[in-house]
Design a protein that fits this description.
With 325 residues, the protein is an alpha+beta fold. The protein contains 12 helices and 20 strands. Strand 6 and strand 7 form a beta hairpin. Helix 3 runs parallel beside helix 4 and helix 7 packs across helix 9. It is globular. Bound molecules: magnesium ion.
């Protein structure tokens, strides 16, 4: 039986064309029924309606933000989310082994893949899929306006990064369920290993262990960014490779307070500002999200890519046969 999957899509999104998804979909008309959406709220509502109507898989085309909106409609239902990753970074999709803009792999995950339960955490009841940051990283994304991004491209991050780095950073304190308090100027929490693109920030994080991994960095100005870069260059922080300025914790929930105004971001989008005297509550949602993932994740490291090459596979089977002979 050929299953046709509803695909939530914003027909006006520029990413649809830039990523090549539009032309790929033209060649896969029989696989999907396009469900156009007008806004983020509309996308969440339509995802929920389709799930309640009994659709086993509901696909969404977009980046992390769009997938979050679809997830909000699907969490706690029996329906699995199918991901067509056509955003810029596609961090969540990479984390799940689907990669970025690999639509054939995405379709295979929907048709033949596994159904994976994924934890969803919230900041003051606002959910995020991959990561949340309190401090300078959030101030940077807050300052990057769409116009600045258009005019400067990736350089916009560097310019705003420098601007934010020279500001004063108020102290942020997280309080864990056991009462322990950890303070720093930049807090990053990860549901998975990746922080941006393929850059790993948490070497041992898993999206299905019920825990959030966190790095609390206690530094001023530019060294905050160096700490983050240092973790990424080591392919993720572990307790044995971080510097004395970074502390790692894992927890199911925590509360956050700050001495001064602190911006926060969810999945790379500015989400709000925490004021002195306010408390941000981090929690895990009681229900998990089901996601379609490929049986074999796409190769990421150069070594994995070499080993996955058809020539290498051919040589491996040749050597096996030679041994048998
Ligand atoms: Mg986890």
């Amino acid at each position: 039986m050929h299953l046709t999957v509803p695909l939530l899509i914003n027909p006006k999104a520029g990413s649809l064309f830039r990523s090549g998804l539009k032309s790929w979909l033209d060649e896969h008309r029989d696989d999907f029924i396009l469900v156009p959406t007008k806004s983020a709220e509309d996308l969440t509502a339509k995802a929920r309606e389709l799930a309640e109507a009994g659709e086993p898989v509901i696909a969404a085309a977009g980046g992390d933000g769009t997938l979050m909106n679809a997830a909000q409609g699907l969490v706690g239902t029996q329906a699995a989310l199918g991901i067509l990753p056509c955003g810029t970074m596609n961090v969540f999709s990479r984390e799940l082994g689907i990669g970025s803009r690999r639509f054939d792999i995405a379709l295979d995950a929907i048709r033949n893949g596994d159904r994976q339960d994924v934890d969803i955490f919230t900041v003051n009841d606002q959910p995020f899929l991959q990561m949340a940051g309190f401090g300078p990283d959030a101030s940077i994304v807050k300052l990057i306006t769409p116009k600045l991004k258009r005019n400067m491209g990736a350089a916009a991050h560097i310019v705003t990064g420098l601007k934010v780095a020279v500001q004063h950073h108020p102290l942020i304190t997280i309080t864990l369920p056991n009462g322990e308090e950890v303070s720093g100027t930049q807090l990053i929490m990860g549901n998975g290993k990746r922080y941006g693109g393929e850059a790993h920030l948490f070497a041992n994080a898993r999206y299905d262990d019920g825990m959030l991994d966190a790095a609390i960095i206690h530094q001023e100005s530019m060294p905050i960014l160096f700490e983050i870069l240092g973790c990424m260059l080591q392919r993720g922080a572990t307790r044995s490779n971080v510097s004395q300025f970074t502390q790692l914790r894992t927890f199911e929930s925590c509360t956050i307070t700050a001495e001064g105004k602190v911006d926060y971001q969810l999945d790379g989008d500015y989400a709000g500002t925490l004021h002195p005297g306010e408390i941000a509550v981090i929690r895990r949602m009681p229900n998990k999200l089901k996601v379609c993932i490929p049986r074999t994740p796409i190769p990421v490291t150069p070594f994995e890519q070499i080993m996955a090459h058809p020539m290498v596979a051919a040589w491996k089977s040749f050597i096996r046969r030679a041994k048998d002979f």
